[in-house]
User: Fold these one by one.
Assistant:
Number 1:
Amino acid sequence: MGTFLVLIVFLGIFGGYQLALKVVSQSKARIIATAIANQNIEMIRNLPYKKVGTTPHAIDEPAGDVSKITTTSQNNIEYTVETKIIYINDCFDGPQSISCPIAPVIDDCVKDYKRAEVKVSWGGSIKGELALTTDVMPKNLNQEQEECTGAAAGVLSVSVFNALGEAVFLPLIAVIDPNTGETLTSYQPPNGKHDFVLTPNSYKIKITKTGYSDTQSYGAGDNYNEKIIAEPAKSHPVVYEGKLTEVGFSIDVLGLMIVQTRGTKEQGYPLIHNVTFKMEGVKTVGNDAEGNPIYKYSQNHTTNGAAEIDISDLEWDSYSFYVDSPDYKLLGIESPLGTETSQPIDLLPGSVQAVGLILKAENTLLVKVQDALSKDPIFAASVRLSNLDLGYDGIQPTDEEGKTLFIPLKEATYDLEVQIEGYQTYTGTVLVSGDVTKIVDLEKVE
């Protein structure tokens, strides 16, 4: 009985000793395995991003310089090292999904980064395994794109802002081949900025948005309104391999100018019909071969029968007006009418600006038509002024003040005829020399 009890005690002590030896051996093996896994993880982290991959590799895995399975022996234990490297698609930069509702709708490259798992296992009486995982990120978008296309790339970062320097919501940014005019890619970023990963080259950028002004880059030799640009104000950006190229463009809400052509204040600002004038902004797209500026906006307009014209879809700018005619002289600018100002006239984004062009000629005739009894002005009376010898024959309506201005005229005697329904027709002659005012009293038909 005593021997049996002693045997039990010693067997327990021996079993405990064996267990302790096994735990120590297992711990040593795990420590060595951890060191091996760490060594391989650090090796992967120090590889160039393009070489982070396995050999051999599956079709959807990155190829690289890391062996998929290797063995090593330490402390008489053989360790098997298995490395698995895969691509990870981070939905943060697209494509949009239920799990990432605010991500971009599309993603040009879904191979956002790589995830490496190193598993170390060992056999024998104390077999076991452990695994370590690390994520390897590309240094920039160039490296990410190179994984997708296999070609070298650079990044073109395009920012779109308004007149106040604030980001424009959802502008359409188009990247265009400047040689063929083909749109290569486009995007509408909510924050007004997008990074395009492109092959090294020169690209034309065009920015548009409904209700906004548009802008673009230009190249030397481009034709703009029949003028050849020699020195562009905003050149086509160039994308370099492995580099970041940043460009900015400015657009804003379109505005409206209402331009009237009128006589002088002394004449009562009478309307002047069918006047052709030139309107020109200060923004340029570049210079021509002689160094002369090529203005982004420079157009001729003619006032209609109401002696005014609405010029819509205007970019915010400062505009000047010119009347190139031997018959007229532009005395001044009033904006609004009655308020003298100097050129250029500023047009703010989304605003409406009224402009009066005050004109003068050497000889003018201001006809005032009124009721013979009440002296009230007669609106829309037809006034005809003619001189057969000069070949002149003009018909104009009177305005709300019963006025109409004939301008320009040559010094001569003219036939005058005024008629309107409900009144007797007036006929007579008038000598025009300098600024002449003719008051016509019409009698009602009984």
Number 2:
Amino acid sequence: MRAGRSLTDLLAQCPADVRGGTQALSFQVLRVLGSAEAARALMAPKNPPAPVDALLVTALGLLWPTDAPPPYAAHTLVDQAVTAARARTPAAANFINAVLRRFLREQAAIVAQVNQQPVAAFNHPAWWIERVRQDWPGHWQALLAEANRHPPMALRVNPRRAGSGQAYLNKLALAGLPARLVQPDLYGQQAIVLNSPCNVQALPGFEQGEVSVQDLSAQRAARLLIDGEGALPPLQAGARVLDACSAPGGKTAHLAERADLDLLALDSDGRRLARVQDTFTRLGLPAPGAGRLNLRAADARQVATWWDGQPFDAILLDAPCTASGIVRRHPDVRWLRRPDDVGALATIQRELLDALWPLVKPGGRLLYATCSLFKAEGQHQIDAFLQRQGASPARLVATSPGHLLPLPDNPASAASANSTGDGFFYALIHKP
């Protein structure tokens, strides 16, 4: 990961029987990586070789005091780190043993000292901390803290296979998986949050397509686009819809679950597009006689290479972004991103908006979405788009939830605190 590789890609290479444990340990370390690196620098100012440093920082991260229970007893962790060093870098075994034992002896003082550094205290890069502080001056500390918590496991019930959300809740109860429906008026009897996360294979009917794992904020997309949430009429059966950046297919499938559509799903990465087909196959979509699905590998900005000239009733533009709103699910993102990534991705978002807007028919709609907290990828992007169109927001934006922050509306409510969606931005734009 330090060399720039996505943790998601790396975990996919792990043998299946150790993948879950490897992910759990990796996530725990990455959530305190700033603290662990600062502690290593304090106790061993001279940088050790990269493999030794990685092992040492990993061990320090797993020893770091957090609200979560430690994965191993401290003496076991130190013993196993030293054993690993002897197997791979024998000359460093005594060094690793000494540093880790010093940390255990002086833990309180070391934690207090490194927490004076913002990167260690908030476990995010300095530029990221500053951008969140500027965008959300009243919430920045809470947002950074939330990014280091374990997210809830939210499910989306497939009504074409599982019926109602209540019916699926009953199946979960029989399987010993307590859960609850979340705001049926907002999510249409499809959103469920488990009391405790579990392996997807433990979910009743998962392989049969009865349910998918999807964050609550991500579940807003289909209803916004199809139903218009009261500000626009619902899409008619057979409506021509484009999902411009569809992989891995969660939102695309949700559209097909909710309505019978003539759906074109694009993605610039053909390999990732295959995951969209896999998702549709598992969910049994589109249902026989209920809409169509066409998949095409193409860059949505290059309209001439894929468009047939027929305008769309609706377009979902789930644009590439920094993923700054889903860091609690992908804790490597903050360490992989660089400051200039924000501007580069904002440019791609602008190009996509400008390329796709002419493809919306009069009376149609475009839903712009990003899983980002950064206003440059959300409200500022849409404000600039509307200015380029020479139209006022009141005329073009039919309904705009705007930025959804991963913070509970009522922190005193346990149900609310455990049902927060990821950080997202949505703007539903109507073409007069």
Number 3:
Amino acid sequence: MSVKSEREKCAKVRKIEKRPANATINRELALLKHLFSLAIKWDYVDSNPVKGVKFLKENMKERILTPDEIQTLLEEANDNLRPIIMTALCTGMRMGEILSLKWSNVNLRSGFIQVEHSKNGKMRKIPISSALTETLKNVNKGNGEYVFMNRGKPIKSMQEAWENALKRGGIKNCRFHDLRHTFATYALFNGADLVSIRDILGHSDIRMTARYAHSSEELKRRAVESLVPLLKQPQKKAEYSQIIHTLGDLEKNMLVSN
């Protein structure tokens, strides 16, 4: 019997009514794979019994905050949480990357954040927007090396503050990770290319970036409506040629980068 099947039946054995989600089983399976890989590296075992086990299919949850929801969330967040939310919305950084961010990795003069504790282990540089610059300037540095601190200690968790802000703002079905989705979607809609978004998010494969670049119904509608002026008004042949040429260059760059 497979590891996945055993895990699915585990809930029944323990008399738990709700079956674990596929995402939960996948995270546990990923942890097992990593543990066995380390065990092989340290000569504790000779093989990885779960190496060939495939992950279960996960249902992608599209949750992009609307502009109104973003403003409400920022208004309802407490003083410690608000700059953290701004950082996520302006950079697409993960929660762990934000909470482990040190002032030594923030250069407001050159306008870059250097992410060291990345999920894939690779460092990356993220440009700091004007909005985020103002936010970080107002963060009290104190004597700590970490950017986000509370009472002189680095913030380890903000789940309670996050849930309280959502509750006060009436925002439902929203995870902190959805701020990463929101960043990618709005950046893409406002003209950023997938290659740049991939580098900012720290993905090794541009296909992963495309999964994050979800669109809300309103953004989709605005996207299709954006072509209306082009189709209604006669354009010069030279202008059409320039548009086609530009799109061709973008496509080539994406293929080369991928």
Number 4:
Amino acid sequence: MAEIRLEQVTRLFKQVRAVDGVDLTVADGEFVVLLGPSGCGKTTLLRSIAGLEQIDYGRILIGGRDVTDVPPRHRKIAMVFQSYAVFPHMTVFENIAFGLRMAKVPAARMKQQVTDAAELLHITELLARYPSQTSGGQRQRIAVARAIAMQPQVLLMDEPLSNLDALLRLEMRAELKRLLLEIGSTTIYVTHDQVEALSMGDRIAVMRAGQVIQVGDPLTIYDAPVDRFVGGFIGNPPMNFLDATLERRDGRLIAHIGEAGELAIPDPPGGLAERAGQPLVLGIRAENIEVGGPGAGLRGRALVVEPLGSHNLVTLQLGEQQLKATTRPDERIAIDDEVALQFDAGRIRWLDRDTGVAVDAELAAPPAAAGAGG
């Protein structure tokens, strides 16, 4: 049992709350990604779980055991750092065996665990080499093998792929996901790369300013961001946000989007009809917008067309606002073309314009939490 539970974990640096009252539970064998921009506190939180940072408030439990004041070596964890941190004077075998040797594991068992880890990472043929005789991707595999050779209950990974080039990062992402499924360790993975987070994690915890803003599976985080920050941080391109006002007309709900026109909302989510007449923000992903020829409804003017191979990314002017939409690569849209736009109304995210919090999140949250979510 290697469940991780964080209860109001807080880490202060003078008056700065690097980690601010974080509550998070990671189930046994689960892979959770801490995602957020630089400086949001995700690495500090990871180091606190490892025992490399002493928290100021709260509790950290691993496998039901309170380890808040337990030294790192007694927490039964392994950590992979952003830098490879391999020892240049040791062979690959010796690097992988380092932690086992420090733990005084018997030689025969140590050799078996090193061999097993090397086989999982496909680096068996490198065991006799020195790190200088390996590539960057191979050194990263060595660092991961050193961690998993310890057979830890908990594996902590701090941006382990950030030093690799794009193609190698893609390859290692798939390898790591396969590996972590195979070994079954409870894993917390820190990254600022949303593609890594969406493609690898069972769940994602999005952080900002030391707090966890939203926790959910990748599809929920992408489709139903709890506020404007999450919607704007996740996705490439980020979610579009348009100022809108709702009106009830003939029993229907209509969204007015400035000079761009209006949009009927056939099946409004709960609580939305009560916001008629109030300023809201309409959030929608680029792929949930259909771009057509001239016609009625919402209208936009093409400003930029970016061919990206599998699709085109079109930037459109809607009155004083802009949005991005995707089209098929063979669809011909020229600069300054006026086009009709159809939004998938069921994929719209409605947010309060003042707080930035999703309308349904406001309804679900206790009154005190609703005002703090933006």
